[in-house]
């Protein structure tokens, strides 16, 4: 099975029903997307397919219909995406385990809606669970990221 | 929300919608006119109502509210879908969080696609909330009955068109194969289609 | 294991820890306790590297800071690195930060200090001496543990001393090289600077520094001279990695030729395996081996997902667990223990004459009474338990996130038969813990699996379902309260708390040892509160051991904070007093009183009733030495209770990283609200019924209040902050709901009694 992740083409010998998450993590060694629940309750596995957020634990790789971007393809420590920069500015992460998914969800939100209000942020970002309770800073960082993207 | 993003959302919607593939064909054979008594029609309706009001169906027929519901044996108490989910006017969550973020869109529908308990159900079609007019959740048999026989509120469908809709829309088929230990909608898809047709043949009687 | 390449003298190998320990104020009593501990870095140096103190290693290619306290998300690595960097004069972002190999040099001298029978507000010489003395058994027992909000209190002096010793030693090396007195040299940004402005990188001085006796007569800088500590702009060293998906947690570690595995064990913890369908699992794609483990069975496969799927196919049959079958039976046992002299455990608070006060009130028909309940709670951190283990003929290597690396080492040695000196534990950053990673069943299982495929590294990951059902939860507890009020004041407070003992359950699991004596955690957070109530008694009753239990963020104070403050709030209401004013009037501890006054000012408190279905609740708990007060505002909407705002004030003595302290405090509050509102473990057929986050939801962003935090520095000791934000959250919320609705909720989770949005 062929797939493109973060701009690189891969060939994976896996069954069609293997969730994309486990193709990324255990077959391709791309560990930015995290396993948290396996049932779309936590969002730690969120990646983009064709630029929009998808819970990779819920997507059988056989149903993948586009290019995959993970947190590691969104930006890098040397060249961060605006959302990642905003996350660092606000010192959002505590344990950080959910933040790959939070950031990918926020980036997807800002693609669809460049100027979300509080209510929209609350709605879109409530599918991503954070057990450390970083939510107040996530809220602030999404707004900062929107400003950065709109300025750019 | 800016216009550009709305259009973008619609494009996405079309892209994913066109992938829907039908499965589980049913046979649509309307009973001969006059062959179903009003009494039999009412009996057929009461079975249709059992299906329409079952959590597998009603949870996503929530009317003007854009909140899907969580109810039935899998959930314990009845409440709105967790995570503050809003399907929006688009009914696919395009204004906020697309349903397809978690309820991913499969290429084909298989028998054990939804075997994992408590995972987000998915089919080979975009997951969505039913139209506002088709408000079933918490409604009585009479209310749903009158809705369904009213072309103004049933999508302009005849009984045969309702049956065909049931045949073609794989998201509806999921109700009879929900997987993951969820309770199925009662009867079978074929029996449900037969009941719709019998109810139609009897002249769409509603309980008083 | 590296070979000792740099010959150090015995003196040099041992001198520094002794010095650092003295600088840290932890040298006491006996010869053994004073005996220096070897610097483990000296065993593993490359040519030209200097291991200056057990916490700083400098080589030609860079500086390594050893941060032995585990990072589970609380920022411990960053804080430890900054403590060293403050005195070493480097930017920690330029150094390698690693927990190093666990060892006795990294003992935690503070984690046991709150185990003394003195409340934290007791600042007497006796209490302080007792607390300091607890560093001795910690050192002798080789307790290298992360927990109890102890990292900063324990390492505040030790790590700064390590940085200062390293700095002065580097200066001494430069002084000898250039023939200039050390006093004339200074340091900045990883360089020694000569009087003429010439700069020499620390790395260039490593070999010379390794060849001389370390300089240990150092004086720590006054906080006014700090350039990093205490500053708002002190970014966490792990932040960029965590925001770019490049942080490598235990679950992300990849070792060549690794195989993947998972296990299922009896969710009736300790129960037998009756049977499983091995053939079904073996017939599945990617499955290599089915391996029995203690109380369960594991599957080794070529992908974690194959292992998860095969585990389901095993269809394991379990025997009964060694405790009551369901929640009803558990509550019955807890209820039976409270106020039952056969279950009496301890009474550390007994002032005035509570029996007399209650009897007097009885005759006047004025005894107030209530009962409370808190459920078992899972820690449920985002990263499920995992470990990679590779076993060769005479070595064991373990990669895992853990708060207890030395216990992990010893247990792995015991199971594998390999000497513990040949068991290497590579501690990894953790995706949360909240106390979960004070357990190590998962490592034991991974060792058992690795023994079946010697030479091959096995990455064992628990499914979320396995994690939730083998969590070793926070104990369930019940409390019965009685009290009296008179003339607008709270006059009598009597609280009886019943729960199973946590410490013996946990420590017994780690060590196989029994822990004698009372279990203080039954009343921690209620007996030790700084209030002067005329008749004041708190008693702990020990219920039988039931579900095996463990430490959960804020430990005893997680339930006791709720019992104590809610009951206090009820009595204040009965007295007709203002909730904040009466707490302040009763408060007997200056630092705590200032916290209460400050939270009132921060929230602009004018009483609990705000009108229009809105209410405010105040709560207070002194835990881990940190007095913490919170005010929560709620609105009773048509869709349920909405938590609008929260105000937090805490006193940590000295603020080292204000940005992170704020995060830990509101994180504690949100974790507390999560469980207060909607989370519990209930048991049926010996197993928890909540198997994943769908049934153990926690708080989501839309339910999260706006939070304002203020931190004070009046306390006499520096304190840790990972836990104290939690205990006041549930009572503050309950008190606010009472103010808004008149409904008093005495059982967590609250959603069983009132709807939330």
Most extensive chain contact?
A-C, 62 and 64 residues
Number of helices of chain B: 7
Question: Using only CA atoms, what is the Rg of chain B?
Answer: 17 Å
Spatial extent as radius of gyration of chain A: 15 Å
- Largest sheet of chain B at a glance? 2 strands, antiparallel
Reading the helices and strands of chain B in chain order gives: HHHEEHHHH
- Give the % helix of chain A: 25-40%
Name of the top-level CATH class of the largest domain in chain A: Alpha Beta
Amino- and carboxy-terminal Cα gap of chain B: 45 Å
Envelope shape of chain B: globular
What's the pLDDT, averaged over the residues of chain A?
97
Rough outline of chain A: globular
Number of separate domains of chain A = 2
Secondary-structure-derived class of chain A? alpha+beta
The total count of helices of chain A amounts to: 6
The proportion of residues forming helix of chain B, as a percent range, comes to 25-40%
Biggest sheet architecture of chain A: 3 strands, antiparallel
Q: Report the structural category of chain B.
A: mainly alpha
